[in-house]
Write a structure and sequence with these properties.
304 residues, Arc Repressor Mutant, subunit A, D-Maltodextrin-Binding Protein, domain 2, 3 domains, 13 strands
């Protein structure tokens, strides 16, 4: 398999047609079509299906694209790596985090880190729960900030980071705001905003309601924790969240109430296989921990 076929495949996925992909690849449409056909023959997979004049990934195609994109991302990063080696400077520190933690935790922690490491370049990506573990296993990142979950990649190194109580987030003026704590049984009388099925926060919410013996009925679903918080602030419903994620919303627009029974949300740091901690990584971890303490104080327990 050659790289040109993979790049052509990615171009078709991104642009949705052979014509657009051919233009990006500086190829003729027949040549682009042949590359895709030979790739499918080589893999013995059907990668695309036609829907209203567009090429759409099949289920097999989606799974293959996830893996192919990792390979191409590494190749795309090679020029930067070579340049860093030639320059003899510090290697870019690669960080990835959940969106719910990127603005409220990672960014201010990096501000602390940057003040003490003026010459250290770094990059920050945001990815979902499903992707972070795979990308770290592929050594695309030096450190990841994520929610705990069963580790599907035994080679990924997982360290406890901190845990904190789950909170019920309600709009200002909402009836539940008058309570000192909120139970799942009280929540189901109101519109509930939940993360989409298959995502870690949704599993946690389902676990909370299952333990309480209450069926979870969601009026609104979203793929974004940040958007769920925003929708609470806009009065669309209530949700379960951690205090850090809630920091992204204007505090004048919502209230947090303890969930009863209490439910702890556990966060972890992930590292790639064969990880060796450097002074730079140690310093970054310290800044992340300091930021958790500054933001949550007694509401968080450092676990690592």
């Amino acid at each position: 398999m050659n790289i040109k076929k993979l790049r052509c495949f990615r171009a078709v996925v991104i642009h949705g047609s052979l014509v657009s992909a051919a233009s990006v690849m500086n190829l003729s449409q027949p040549a682009t079509s042949r590359l895709i056909s030979t790739l499918e023959d080589e893999l013995k997979l059907k990668l695309f299906k036609r829907e209203k004049r567009r090429l759409v990934l099949t289920q097999e195609g989606k799974q293959f694209y996830q893996e192919a994109e990792k390979i191409l991302a590494n190749l795309d990063d090679l020029p930067r790596i070579v340049q860093e080696i030639k320059a003899g400077g510090q290697r870019t520190l690669r960080i990835v985090a959940l969106a719910r933690l990127a603005g409220s935790l990672v960014s201010p922690a990096l501000a602390r880190f940057a003040r003490a490491h003026l010459d250290q370049p770094f990059s920050v990506d945001v990815r979902g729960h499903r992707d972070i573990e795979q990308w770290v296993a592929g050594r695309h990142y030096d450190i990841a900030v994520a929610l705990t979950r069963p580790c599907n990649h035994p080679s990924v190194i997982q360290r406890p980071f901190f845990d904190t109580d789950a909170m019920v987030m309600v709009p200002k003026g909402h009836p539940l705001e008058a309570l000192r704590s909120v139970t799942p049984a009280q929540m189901i009388r109101h519109d509930i905003i939940a993360l989409a099925s298959g995502r870690r926060p949704r599993f946690q919410m389902e676990d909370i309601f299952q333990r309480a013996g209450v069926p979870l009925r969601c009026k609104i679903e979203t793929t974004s924790t940040a958007l769920a918080c925003q929708m609470v602030g806009d009065g669309l419903g209530i949700t379960i969240i951690d205090r850090l994620a809630a920091l992204a919303v204007d505090p004048k627009r919502f209230s947090l109430r303890p969930l009863r029974p209490a439910y702890r949300l556990e966060f972890v740091l992930l590292f790639p296989p064969d990880f060796e901690e450097t002074p730079v990584i140690t310093a970054l971890i310290a800044c992340l921990r300091d930021q958790v303490r500054a933001s949550l104080g007694a509401h968080a327990t450092m676990t690592g």
